[in-house]
Amino acid sequence: MEASTWPSTKVPSKATIGCSPGWNRPPAFAARNAGGPKRAKTRVINPATPSSRMSGNHTESPAPTTIPLSEAENLCHVGVQSMRALVVEDDEKIASFVSKGLKQNGFAVDCANDGERGLDLASTIAYDVAILDLMLPKLDGLSLLRRLRQQKVQTPVLILSARANVDDRVIGLQTGGDDYVTKPFAFSELLARVQALIRRASHSQEPTQLAVADLSMNLVTREVSRAGKAIELHPREFSLLEFLLRHVGRPVTKTMILEHIWDFHFDPQTNVVDVLIHRLRAKVDKGFSVKLIHTIRGVGYVTKAD
């Protein structure tokens, strides 16, 4: 998403929105990699007819490289969380603007349009960051934040509010907020602040370059190349490849990919992961003798140079 500025005109009035409410996760939903209960509404995409959000020609890819399960068991299979954000905002336009921008930058995003729903999600899901409005229905943002800190939930919280005076900013930060951005705002600044919060919380430096063998990805310019040849990827293809490169040598399950790319809104039995892997292989591995994306039967996929 290009660096965009929310219009400097008056912020739209608050209204109950149609922002995706997510699904009701039980408190015990901690073992995310183990999958979750099937939801009634699912979507299955035919590999031959990808949806408009997965546009592109369905080109033939090289035959999948498979790894025996016995070998897979020897690989380090750890469930590393993807970057996951919670947006608690009752204004539909702002929620859509922020959510879309984060998704296009590789985040999985859950959205809540009232304070009670936001508190429920933030209390039961381990988010990497939360973006919180203050003027919310059912439960205001400061009360939500206060309850989270009382519950010892340490998720970094960025307050996004039209309340721009100094007193409001001070109260927000003293209540437990980690950063404060006022509306109107530039998405590029919001994204930079979100990334800075995550770096501070993880006590690590966010890499700007990912690579395996002769394949490289620049996370700043969002450019991908292999053996010096540029590879054009759609946003979801880029997100999937980034996720695989962040787990080089370690298997990732279909459920992990669904969590990262599709925000839990698909039945784990759907074939969308197979479709996206098929398209990514066609761009990354086709024409190269060394294949990088491997299938592990009964487990998922692993990226490595073998």
Counting DSSP E segments of at least 2 residues, the number of strands comes to 13
Superfamily at the CATH H level of the largest domain? Winged helix-like DNA-binding domain superfamily/Winged helix DNA-binding domain
**CATH architecture identity of the largest domain:** Orthogonal Bundle
- Low-confidence sequence ranges: 1-81
Structural class, from secondary structure content? alpha/beta
Q: State which percent range the strand residues make up.
A: 15-25%
What is the name of the CATH topology of the largest domain?
A: Arc Repressor Mutant, subunit A
The succession of helices and strands, N to C, reads EHEHEHEHEHEHEEEEHEHHEE
Radius of gyration over all CA atoms, rounded: 20 Å
Percent range for helical residues? Answer: 25-40%
- Taking strands numbered 1, 2, ... along the chain, how are they ordered across the largest sheet? 3-2-4-5-6
